[in-house]
């Protein structure tokens, strides 16, 4: 399945522009990112900064109705998380799936 073919997110989520995310990072805010791109894409390039915590969990981990506990344990539930991908579709789907839980 291509990220463009993902179903509609289970819950409505807020969108953050790349510029707004960059502004938050440049301002020194603590930011937690959930990068839903493939591991090879993540290893090639990802956002890195002293105030940024990044978790790489490709979108396909979130396709099942019951997301594996091992996956969910990697996603902090005590802070805001910004979910990102290459084009927006996969991150919106994953953010909606997490919010619905």
UniProtKB/TrEMBL annotation:
Domain Rhodanese: from-to ranges: 27-101
Endpoints of the signal sequence: none
Pfam families with a match to the protein in the record: Rhodanese
Region annotation (Disordered) ranges: 1-24
The protein's name in its UniProt record: Rhodanese-like domain-containing protein
Organismal lineage: Archaea, Methanobacteriati, Methanobacteriota, Stenosarchaea group, Halobacteria
């Amino acid at each position: 399945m291509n990220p463009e073919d993902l179903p509609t997110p289970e819950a409505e989520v807020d969108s953050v522009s790349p510029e707004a995310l960059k502004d938050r990072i440049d301002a020194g805010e603590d930011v937690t990112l959930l990068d839903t791109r493939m591991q090879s894409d993540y290893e090639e390039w990802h956002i890195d900064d002293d105030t940024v915590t990044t978790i790489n969990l490709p979108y396909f981990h979130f396709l099942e109705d019951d997301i594996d506990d091992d996956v969910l344990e990697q996603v902090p539930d005590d802070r805001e998380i910004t979910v990102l991908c290459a084009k927006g579709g996969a991150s919106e789907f994953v953010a909606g799936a997490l919010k619905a839980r």
